[in-house]
Design goal:
The complex is a heterodimer of chains A (196) and B (349). With 196 residues, chain A is an alpha+beta fold. Chain A folds into two domains: 163 residues, no CATH class; 30 residues, no CATH class. Chain A contains eight helices and four strands, in the order ααβααββαβααα. The longest helix of chain A is centred in the N-terminal third of the chain and has 19 residues. Chain B is 30% helix and 30% strand. In chain B, strands 1, 2, 3, 4, 5, 6, 7, 8, 9, 10 and 11 form an eleven-stranded antiparallel beta sheet that branches. In chain B, β10 and β11 form a beta hairpin. In chain B, 37% of the residues are buried. The chains are: A alpha+beta (196), B alpha+beta (349).
Chain lengths: 196, 349
Amino acid sequence: MSSIEYATIYDHAAAVVKSQCGSTPEVSQILDDFRRRALGDEKDPLENRELIIEPMHDAQILEVPTQLVEKVAAELHRLNILHIWVRATCPANNDDELTVIETDSPKAFREMLALSCPHCGQLHEDIDWDHLKRFYAIHFESAPDKFKFSNYFRKAQSLPSVASVRPPLLSRIGMWFREGPLSRFFGEGLSHRLKR
Amino acid sequence: MATFSLSDEQKTRLEHFMKHRRLNDEAVTLLKKAKDTHQLKSTDLRTAKNLTYLNVTENLIKAVNQGWIALADLVKMLDDSEFSGKQHVCLFKLPDAGAKKILDALRTPSGSTGSIPKITDFISLPTGSTVRILRDTKDEVAVKIVTRRSYWVTNLLEQKPDREVLERLRHEERAAVIVKATLNNKMLQCRVPPREKGPQETGKAVYEFLVKALEGHYPVDPQSWFDKVGQFPISDAFPKILKNKTDFELWHDTPEDKTTRTRMSKRGRPKSGTDLRNEKNWQFEKGYSRTNIRGFWKTAVGMELYVHMNADRVRLNQSQTRNFARLVVTQLCTDGDLDHVVDRIRDHL
């Protein structure tokens, strides 16, 4: 999708948000700021952190009420312009809030938590909700190809969570066979011998 | 005249209470007043400002036993000290419609009602939770919930290169929670004393203890008044407070933007007169946000109050979170001083 196409889609969505939240200077200020950030070249929120929207922080920078930014962001989320992301922070470092992963992908979330933490080296598979924070990101891959009012009434996005990311039993058995000791023994050993 | 005799354990508890509530100045003032009234010598009653808490406690007991200080005055000093200062102050906003109903709900607690405080209340652990209405006017209600708080404290007993011995002890203490609702500024203040032992509490620990103390006397379920009080958006006030150099001095800052997070603080024990914003390395006025700042508020009577201002978020369950503002006041102060600080923060919204 080109920037011009995306800008048109965003402007349509912004008009709907203004109709919902009021066409006040503060709402326009918030929407203009999000638009400027959305039209940057880098489209990955992990690379371009301007695409990350955290109402409490953005409200302070724009000097507008947090509740208004939350309302605007919620409307943009309903219109599929913003996506909900989750940030898991290392439970071993309560004070510093060191990030383990930021994602909106249940698969990436599951995979990262199965690895050792980059900060403390431990496994955080049993991470509790206190160490998960929600925020929004401007997410181009899931943005609508064209603006549709029907998007406004779509089903709300489900969140990546510890419960939702746990695959069913049969899939886990399949994964174990693919990734477990059997595949390591036969797969790698066999492939090495074949290469020789 | 009734003899005021305390066992060693009770004396230690009174000393701990005085120490925890930082009552040195108030106690010495009380002793000085008795000394002047009864024209006593320095050998009769010691009133030096540098007295240890043990000496202050012993002098107070002596003064009460000799009839120089009324026991009621001593109890009043202890009771008043729990009202404001050296507390976590959780701030909520009363709703525009229905604020009066919340005041009415506070006026009608359930459970055991506290009587006029006695000295034994402060030198022994409460057996249950009691509630007492301290103020009840048309525009303001303040209640005091006295309960027992219990938590684990870890001590390092022995440390060797290959061996550490730790012990965990269950610590129990008296905790007085003040809940004050005011119609004029539509604010609800929940003042929770800090733990006597162990590391500093997080916002979550403070909130959980507050809810536990409240639920002994008020409903706290999703249909209750406690769920109807709204968020006090303290983070919205931060940018304007940082521009205020008239009656606010910054000591500790936590600026962050989309890419970086930092902490910046003046070195040493907090003291007024040196503003972090005057440092050349502090360049965080625009384009940064924060979740907490600390600094001195100058009150109307020339007193300076060091306050931590936190925007806290507590996760109640998988789907619900609650945002609230939490001030941490590290010294004793008057109720008026605390209200002044809350009002000044409100002025910056």
